[in-house]
């Protein structure tokens, strides 16, 4: 499906890029100053030192050494508690960062989602107007070609009867089958495009401020998919519209040429 960035205006793309860059910058902080392996190694070394010290202390029974040993044990225990406190503070800090990143991601998705919705709303309005115009033009052209052909042939009949212009052949629309097929194809593409527009507009109406990040992300993917499908339908309608316009111009020329041929017979 189409990348949603290509749908948006450049200014909107830049705003979204700035938000994403800020998010990525904050995310990089998560791994800074928090090497789990190093912290585990520090604690393990302190624990081993305490265990070794306690083993040596148990084998010693001198009173003066007991006082000194107690001070050393207290120092190691304090060092251990300090390292534990550092880890606790870093965990609190990282938890706050996780909350901040979660909020930033939601805000980024929400901004890109609402921007995409507003952009697509505008495009859908323009496409809907074009579809209505194209189908109306095609319908009116079919009516025109039938009515103008009938009118021309009625004139030929009247003139043949009144002036005996037997050499004037009736006007026939040689490509009427192609014109009818193109009109029918345009109607089918109009239905197809209208259904896609309905699918898109349903996604416009969700309560996105209260939607979770995953819903916003998945809906954004759906919108870009439906928009790419809509563009394909619109391109088909444009091709048929151009073809029908060309038919109309050719038909006008041929009918005028027929009337010109009839008028020339009165020059004799």
From TrEMBL:
Residues 36-63 form a coiled coil. The keyword Coiled coil applies. It comes from Plasmodium chabaudi adami. Keywords: Coiled coil. This is Reticulocyte binding protein.
């Amino acid at each position: 499906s189409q990348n949603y960035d290509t749908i948006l205006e450049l200014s909107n793309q830049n705003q979204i890029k700035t938000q994403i860059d800020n998010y990525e910058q904050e995310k990089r902080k998560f791994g800074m100053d928090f090497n789990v392996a190093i912290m585990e190694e520090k604690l393990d070394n302190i624990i081993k030192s305490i265990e070794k010290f306690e083993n040596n202390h148990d084998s010693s029974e001198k009173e003066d050494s007991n006082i000194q040993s107690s001070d050393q044990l207290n120092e190691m225990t304090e060092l251990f508690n300090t390292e534990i406190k550092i880890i606790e503070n870093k965990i609190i800090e990282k938890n706050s960062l996780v909350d901040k990143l979660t909020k930033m991601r939601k805000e980024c998705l929400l901004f890109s989602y609402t921007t995409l919705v507003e952009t697509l709303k505008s495009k859908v309005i323009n496409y809907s107007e074009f579809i209505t115009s194209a189908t109306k033009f095609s319908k009116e052209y079919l009516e025109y070609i039938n009515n103008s052909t009938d009118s021309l042939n009625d004139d030929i009949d009247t003139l043949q009867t009144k002036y005996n212009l037997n050499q004037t052949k009736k006007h026939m629309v040689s490509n009427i089958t192609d014109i009818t097929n193109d009109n029918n194809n345009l109607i089918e593409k109009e239905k197809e495009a209208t259904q896609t527009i309905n699918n898109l507009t349903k996604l416009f109406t969700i309560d996105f401020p209260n939607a979770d990040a995953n819903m916003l992300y998945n809906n954004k993917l759906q919108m870009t998919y439906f928009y790419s499908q809509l563009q394909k339908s619109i391109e088909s309608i444009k091709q048929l519209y151009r073809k029908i316009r060309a038919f109309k111009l050719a038909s006008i020329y041929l009918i005028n040429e027929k009337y010109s041929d009839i008028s020339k017979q009165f020059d004799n």
